[in-house]
Amino acid sequence: MRFSDLDKITGGNIIQLAGNRNVSSLVTDSRKPIISDGSVFFALRGERHDGHQYIVELYQLGIRQFVIEKPFDHTLFPAANIILVGSVIAALQAIAAEHRRSFSIPVIGITGSNGKTIIKEWLFQLLSSDKNIAKNPGSYNSQTGVPLSVWGLQPNHQLGIFEAGISLPGEMEKLEKVIHPTIGIFTNIGTAHDEGFATLTEKIEEKLKLFSRVGLLIYCADHSELHEVIQLKKIPSLTWGSSDKATIKIKQVAARYELSYQQQLIYLQLPFSDKASIENCFHCVALLLHFGYSPAVIQERVRQLKSVPMRLELKQGINRCQVIDDTYNNDLAGLKISLDFLNSLQKKKKTLILSDILQSGLNEIELVDRIKALLIQSGISSFVGIGSMLSSHQAHFRDIKATFFRTTEEFLRSVKWENFESELILVKGARPFQFEKIVQQLQRKVHGTVMEIDLNKMVHNLNFFKSKLKSGVKLMAMVKAFAYGSGSEEVANLLQYHKVDYLGVAYADEGVELRKNNISLPIMVMNPAEENFTSLLSHCLEPVMYSLKMLRAFSQFIEGRPMTIHVEVDTGMHRLGFDEGDLPEIIAILKSHPSISIASVYSHLAGADEAAHDGFSQEQFGRFQRFYKTLTDSLGIKPLRHILNSPGILRFPDFQMEMVRLGIGLYGVNPTEGKVDQLQPVATLKTIVSQIKKIGKGETIGYGRKGKAENDMSLATIAIGYADGFSRSFSKGKGFVSIKGKKAPVIGNVCMDMTMVDVTHIDVQEGDEVIVFGEENPIQEVAASINTIPYEILTNTSERVKRVFFAESI
Question: 634 to each of 211, 548, 553, 584, 620, how far by Cα in Å?
């Protein structure tokens, strides 16, 4: 496909053709462009973003082909190919659909409410030894993810497996044109995205549009609503289930399943016992039967199925390193996703430890060419290749700092771990290479208590709050107090990648640490001290001036050097800030020190989270506006204004002004007294059961003998105490943890490193996982049990507790 073909394919108008280049790479994210002669950038627009804003930046980086829907002065880009279309996303889909039409291979399309990604990945595990397969990377199943996935079809592929997800009517018909499946799998129907559809039948009918041209549709006949709609539409089907209506009739017989199909009985044992995995597995079995696989082969392959990790993890490593653990699968599409995640972080030194990529369907020269291109695009500083294929082609990587080992064991015997220092290490390998052994050596050794931070949920929360902002309103993200206990460096990296406007910290040393870790965003320091002025200046940090004493000292220190400050106004919080009576001296000092510039003027609402204080919040806003007008009229400037925190963003849209501050809401904690269903809790604090004891009636437990067994009981000692941030206030039954979905109350006093809990009513084993707070044990309930707030619970979690950050993988 060449750029001159795009007008016919998209219905657009080529407004500039500087050179008729090939179309080889489709780029939709300006933060991770593939820079090549055949790259095409699609300037997608959404509620809070507009790709047209990044065209200048991408042109400077080397992108030379653009699909746009807003005209601009294209003469500023003399070497560019530019096509103007009615809808950029429709153009992206049309180009992918045209690409799909050039392939006559079988393509499996998967949709449904749950299980799409698992079934796709399991089918890949089951079939990839026989066929070269193209599939969505991760859960790229959206209106943009599907065309990007289908674009990955190459001549060497023998089978395509693509999932499609929708949330609104009218979306699936577009994806059907892109995927054009020949075989369909409808996983199930549930309540996800119900808000977009009037009835369940309407949702089923919309999803079925993916299968309008299939030769066969596989589904479970036990879903009666689904079965009825499909039968009415007369779609050729292969059904399975316990129902007599099913083509493949299944019943459980002891520890195995009996399948009746085409006048034969087949017996299978599944490596899963949960209902969801069993359903997902039988969709795969039905497809294998349709493809003609023998029962013996199906049983052997099903037995080898592995659970699908849906995330990659960012862990604290040895020698100030960070380790990205993606040790479960390895293909080119997955490698690209992992490298994109690596590039979203800001460490300058980046190391990749990579195994051979198995069953790629490419010849070895083409495969190593693609791997090398990804390494160069991602700015990899050091490359470690493990496997016979990579080792045999090491000369191919001679212009990259690289070392090679034929096996994981050879690497483990030869490596000097002290050579890994202050770097970001991506460990990505196929399962047979057992790269988890490498990760075990690279990650920092800590006890069994960890705080997991879900970066996908954090981005979701960020986008939710962004959606509440008026056009042009800037966002300052607060990363003070170790980013509310979540890890300042990692969170700041994510926020910088997602283009927030400002960061806020409490103290200068927090800002200095962020600068040392390559955070370049403007940083406001809320509580500076005179002894930190030099550090603030040398690290380009912006201090808050909140008192005349502070401003006087700062103006004497600065001695004509340019410096940016923020001005805090006390409008009723009575914590820090200038009063209205300070204005004459503030104005006089700033007029006599013109090198000091004001980035923003701000204040705090004392009761933004409660409707009972709305009248006072209005008063505060009025006082702030009066202070700001007097200050800025006198100085002839118009700095940014901000007064809203997380609850304020949700409750006072008219107070947004030029900027808002997002704090606890970013971490998924509802900051208001009302219900906010859209927020997703980011942090889960986990520990383990160290020991289980049987305690007789009347015996006492813990320091001070404060716990007493009222009856014979089972006692679990868990590996967390007040030194980890699990407060002594949780002692004597006030606190509780969750084990296997059940609450276990604290018995006796919380110790420094351990706590005892009552597990009499729970089937517990030593080593079992314990949820201190998280989805199973909401942090709001944990906080309420000791009459505090979620802020305190989050920020009290000790830095000795390992933070593990994870994001979507595969």
Answer: 68, 17, 22, 10, 21
Q: What is the pLDDT of residue 446?
A: 58
Report d(CA 475, CA 458) in Å as an integer: 15
Q: Residues in the chain with pLDDT < 50?
A: 485, 809-810
Among 116, 135, 209, 480, the one annotated catalytic: 480
* pLDDT per residue as tens digits for the range 683-714: 999 999 999 999 999 999 999 999 999 999 99
Which helix or strand (DSSP H or E) is residue 135 part of? strand 133-135
213-227 as b/e, with b when 16 or more CB fall inside 10 Å?
Answer: ebebbbbbbbbeebb
Do 649 and 643 meet the contact criterion of CB atoms below 8 Å apart? no
Instruction: For residue 324, give the nearest of 334, 339, 309, 336 by alpha carbon.
Output: 339
**Sheet architecture: strand order including 502-505:** 640-642, 596-602, 563-568, 542-545, 523-525, 502-505, 474-478, 659-662
d(CA 131, CA 575): 67
Beta-bridge mates of residue 808: 311
Buried b (16+ CB within 10 A) or exposed e, 193-203: eeeebeeeeeb
Q: Is 234 exposed, middle or buried (0-12, 13-18, 19+ CB in 10 A)?
A: exposed
- Type of residue numbered 306: K
Residues 779, 791: Cα–Cα separation, whole Å: 9
Decide: 42 and 55 in contact? Cβ < 8 Å.
Answer: no
Instruction: Using DSSP, state whether 247 is helix, strand or coil.
Output: coil
Closest by CA position to 393, among listed 436, 418, 364: 364
Nearest to residue 684, comparing CAs of 738, 727, 730, 721? 738
Q: Which residue has the tokens 């966002």?
A: 475
Query: At which residue do the structure tokens 């996983």 appear?
Result: 187
What's the pLDDT score for residue 484? 53
Rounded Cα distance, 728 and 197, in Å: 49
Cα separation, 79 vs 61, in Å, equals 13
Contact at 8 Å (CB) between 671 and 647?
yes
Radius of gyration of the chain from its Cα atoms, rounded to whole angstroms: 29
φ and ψ of 769, to 5 deg = -75, 140
Check residue 810 and give its pLDDT.
40
DSSP character string of 457-493: HHHHHHHHHHTTSPTT-EEEEE-HHHHHTT-HHHHHH
Distance between CA atoms of residues 596 and 586, nearest Å: 12
Partners of 700 in the beta sheet? 708
SS3 sequence of 726-757: CCHHHCCCCCEEEECCEEEEECCCCCCCCEEE
CA angle 343, 346, 351 (to 5 degrees): 60
- Examine the residue annotation and report whether 480 is marked as an active-site residue of this protein: yes
In a 10 Å sphere around its CB, with 0-12 CB exposed, 13-18 middle and 19+ buried, how is residue 349 labelled?
middle
Taking Cα atoms as reference points, which of 100, 109, 26, 12 lies closest to residue 63? 26
3-state secondary structure at position 782:
helix
C-alpha closest to that of 564 among 619, 509, 640, 658: 640
Clarify whether 315 is annotated catalytic. Answer: no
Distances from the Cα of 615 to the Cα of 141, 402, 603, 649, angstroms: 46, 65, 16, 17
Q: Which amino acid is at 301?
A: R
Cα→Cα distances 270→187, 467, 612, Å: 18, 44, 57
Residues 6+ apart with CB under 8 A from 477: 462, 495, 500, 502, 503, 504, 661, 662, 663, 666
What are the start-end ranges of the E strands in 190-273?
216-220, 237-241, 248-253, 256-261, 264-268
- Looking at the chain, how many residues does it have? 810
Number of CB atoms found within 10 A of residue 308's CB: 19
Please state, as a whole number, how many other Cβ atoms lie within 10 Å of the Cβ of residue 395.
7
